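Sanity check. The docking grid for iron/sulfur cluster depends on where the pocket ends up, so I'm generating a full predicted complex first rather than guessing from homology. Inputs follow.
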Amino acid sequence: MDHPYRPPTTHAALSGLDTGLLSAVAAGQARLTPAQALEVFHRMPTAELGRWADARCRQVHGEVLRTYVIDRNINYTNVCTARCTFCAFRRDAVDHDAYTLETEELLAKIGELVAIGGTQILMQGGMNPGLPLDWYLELLAAIKSRYPRVHVHAFSPPELIEFVGFFGAPGATLFEKARWVLGKLKAAGMDSLPGGGGEIFAGPVRRKIGLGKCDQEAWLTTMYAAHSLGMFTSASMMFGHIEGYADRIHHMGCVRGWQDKALGWSEAGRHEGTEARRDEGEGVPFGHYKAFISWPFQRDNTPLGRVKDWGSQAGDTGEFPGDVVANLTGDGDAKSHAEFGRRLRTSGTVDYLRTQAVSRLFLDNVYSIGASWVTMGPHVGQTALAFGANDMGSVMMEENVVSAAGTTYCLDEPVLCRLIREAGFLPAQRNNTYDILRVHEGSESPDLAVRDWSEHRLKRLHVERRESAAPLTIGASDR
Ligand code: SF4
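Predicted complex below; grid placement will be based on this.
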């Protein structure tokens, strides 16, 4: 019989730099407190931080395999009611380059994915009030009818929360309403819920950058509703903009706390089995977060990207405004620094690797930490495998959201396998639940089968082209 889940013990009196504590964290026998994680973030040298994160990753994932998945990002609509200041993708319904894909177009994309051995689609869009529930149900049914074996990893908590309003979902609480919508979508063919729209949970930051988007509680509650239906989900974090470092730790702490809950551990400190949660999950085994992926904000073509960099203006002295406002409980006072939200601190390679490494050490209850080569480039993604990441994410056939913000990296399967192999691991293709589908050892491996790398050209990344960008605006309070 499986033992009930119990989180690792904390030792709050110790320094986060205590090697005994870190050895226990790497072994899965101790948990970092938020204050210790912040201390690690601020004070541990980068190479040392990488070594601890790598040790923890090897404990969870072993020494041999590092994974990737073949999926396709399909952005079914760019019409969106929200106005996130970091977004270059959204359009109003009346814009000339607004689009919603036809079912046949979408199915053709999945056909191309299946042709290269793909196993799942990541299907997300803007929050489009013009699409009724039946549109989604019929789309999901059409996908499952034509491609029953393709895993549909679809939508995001912000989309789901809008669906609750658009579709008039019944229920007394957001949990019940979101669960009703998710139940309908699941019955029609949705398999799991990706962690889009996480950004930074802390209210002061979220209210500045995610105009019209759900708050932390709603995001996490929607994920919990998905878990209650047995779905596996992921969590994400977009950092390197106006937030403070403590906001990143708070964000990870929210994921960790709700993951404890999904795994059956209550805040009162006892395990609650399926029976105790029957009212929520009706006896269905709970799902949980399978993965955490973080990436730095990409500024090109976005209103937020036009905000001045910290240090570029006379008077930009002292602590970064985001650090003045941020705290580990996510409820800092936005008024405590006059320039909060008006200055950026973007994230480079080292900050990215440090953030990812801290996530590996802090998120002791999340199985997979994904590298973000899409935003950071192939070789930083490869380096991330030495900073706690076990997964290189997906072969990229199509991407419309971050590419709209200037990022256009594109990798096919041979290149992805080569990057993993050059990092000292065997590349292995996985599915959505991280089961290994193929291990690439022999000469037939996608990378080893390439006879002439000088001739190997990447296929062009598919982007839903629009003739020109719509005007981008930013609220006065954010400038
Ligand atoms: S990030 Fe998503 S929710 Fe926000 S404006 Fe863009 S499409 Fe809409």
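Relevant for the grid: Residues 29-463 form a domain with the TIM Barrel fold (CATH 3.20.20.70).
Also worth noting: The chain has one domain: 29-463.
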